[in-house]
Request: fold
Amino acid sequence: MIVFPAIDIRDGKCVRLLKGEFDKETVYSDDPVEMALNWQSQGAKYIHIVDLDGARTGSQKNFEIIEKIINALDIPVQIGGGIRNLETARKIINAGAERIIIGTSAITEPYTLIEAINELEQKLVVGIDSKDGYVAIKGWEKMSARTTLDFAKEIELLGVKTIICTEISRDGTLQGPDIEGIKALVEQTEIDVVASGGVGCFNDLIKLREIGAAGAIVGKALYSGNITMEQIIEIY
Reply:
């Protein structure tokens, strides 16, 4: 199981939100590049980056910083937030990202998703942001009528190989991931499922590995010291 340290960027800073609410922000660093290098130096094998401004507005707002992170690191990165078309996806891949994450457009623009699957193949990840079993879009501020599980099954049929499922109500709470929700996705699809939201301690990572999650994203727990990189290395 891959554990991804998360770097969420807003207004050029490394931040964490509580339950996806933009008015509940904690700033952890004014320098996301330095933070990424810090996790790499401690043994991280992969970095997860989200442009929060992009997720909210629909267009990349922190591309220059993301490009600097990619160029500074020797390990792969996956990028999400504000990637709503193939032009943006290509730009980020050409900058050196290993994978890009499409969220909102995967559900609002199915033809864009199909084109992305055909062109990007393994470099494409679909981010499913879930709340009470339904998919949220547009920076988590709007709810769709699609259930998380049904949507995962639909995109699996289209050829998607990897998803990141974020439980919004748990994100930033340290209260534990949605084990049952992730387990249902793992058991009822053949997709690689990366769990996000709520990871609060090392035991949460153990549980996710036991139910077959392909990966987990760790944010606040790592920044607050609840989980250490030494523990994450044990999971790899």
Observations:
- The chain has a mean pLDDT of 92.
- The domain at 2-235 is CATH 3.20.20.70 (TIM Barrel).
